[in-house]
Write a structure and sequence with these properties.
This protein has a domain at 15-159: Kelch-type beta propeller (Neuraminidase, 6 Propeller), CATH 2.120.10. The chain is built from one helix and 28 strands. The protein has one helix at 199-202, and strands at 2-5, 17-22, 25-30, 39-44, 47-50, 60-65, 71-76, 88-92, 95-98, 110-118, 121-130, 135-143, 154-156, 162-169, 172-177, 182-186, 189-192, 212-217, 220-227, 232-239, 242-247, 259-264, 267-272, 275-280, 283-286, 305-312, 315-320, 325-328.
């Protein structure tokens, strides 16, 4: 791994948002603590720099760019049900502006998934707290001609916490939750897929066990959860829409996986706090250790990694809690 820049810029809460056009251009948003304005960093032509802060909320979980680093949208988590609690902000020509009738008023309101067709059309999904029954509900919002509606487009009485959306076009696509639950968008309408249970139901676990799903495509992906009682990381593959037997993680750390990314079902990278592991041939092993168990490179980064983005197996970025930013350039 090669340290590409960083420093203690801001403290970042779990759930950094990042989107990249390519290895040399992108943006990172996050949490700014007592600053009460969101962290906003820009990667332009290979150089990281501060970008104008976003004042309307303190925590950002997702960002989507539309072909360049100066156009897109950002979504936040709750910062009070007021003008400051706007859920979405628009990036236009490098300038941020509030452009949303949607506001948050509960700490459980979090937009984890955001995808755009263009600068004026797309979808977002979140866990939205229903004050009437005291439950969080899976909710999908539609960006239509540059406007987010005040009313929920589709709301489900479940808490699978949608975290990824794929669009074929504005009316067709699919989404997955943190537990691997699948929703399908057909002819503009979202429905929960009946052909797959999320791992929370399949394995009878709770969200307190830090579940996280990485979809490779609609019916394949990787799931993890952490058993706090036994301090064990569990990793399970979803293959052709069926949960498989557990993968032996080969991770000797009693802590949940904090970030991961894959280029296909057999190849990727995993972070457990500051420790890095590689996935090759579908197997997980410690980075920097050769086939004979000899240490050939350090697998520890001096920051808790909360986001990994990959262009391919040997090129990507890892973003840490303290905004240390690492360029992934492995030697194997």
């Amino acid at each position: 791994m090669v340290l590409a820049g960083g420093g203690n810029i801001f403290y970042v809460n779990y759930g950094v948002g990042a989107d990249f056009i390519d290895m040399n251009n992108g943006r990172v948003v996050g949490y700014a603590g007592e600053q009460e304005k969101g962290t906003n960093l820009k990667l332009e032509n290979g150089v990281w720099s501060y970008a104008p802060s976003i004042n309307h909320a303190e925590s950002f979980l997702s960002i989507a760019l539309t072909g360049n680093i100066d156009t897109g949208w950002v979504a936040s988590s709750c910062h009070g049900g007021s003008e400051d609690g706007k859920a979405f902000a628009n990036l236009n020509n490098g300038e941020w502006s509030l452009n949303s009738d949607v506001t948050f008023d509960h700490s459980d309101d979090k937009v984890r998934a955001l995808v755009l067709i263009d600068e004026n059309n797309g979808w977002a999904a979140e866990s939205f707290y229903n004050t009437d029954d005291g439950q969080s509900e899976d909710t999908f919002w539609k960006l239509d001609s540059g406007t987010w509606p005040q009313e929920q487009i589709k709301q489900f009485p479940t808490n699978h916490r949608p975290s990824f959306i794929h669009l074929d076009d504005m009316d067709n696509g699919w989404a997955t939750g943190l537990d691997g639950t699948k929703w399908v968008l057909q002819s503009g309408t979202w429905s929960q897929s009946a052909d797959r249970q999320g791992i929370a139901e399949a394995a009878n676990i709770t969200y307190e066990e830090r579940v996280m799903f990485y979809p490779i495509d609609e019916n394949n992906g990787w799931e993890t959860y952490f058993d706090y009682d036994s301090s064990v990381i569990h990793v399970i593959k979803l293959v052709n829409n069926v949960w498989q037997q557990e993968v032996q993680p080969g991770i000797g750390i009693a802590s949940p996986i904090t970030a991961w990314a894959f280029t296909d079902m057999d190849t990727g990278w995993i972070a457990v706090n500051g420790f890095i592991y590689k996935v090759k041939g579908g197997n997980i092993s410690e980075y920097g250790v050769d086939e004979n168990g000899n240490t050939i490179a350090d697998n520890y980064l001096e920051d808790y990694i909360y986001k990994i983005w990959l262009q391919d197996y040997k090129n990507g970025w890892a973003i840490g809690r303290n905004m240390n930013i690492y360029r992934l350039s492995p030697n194997d």
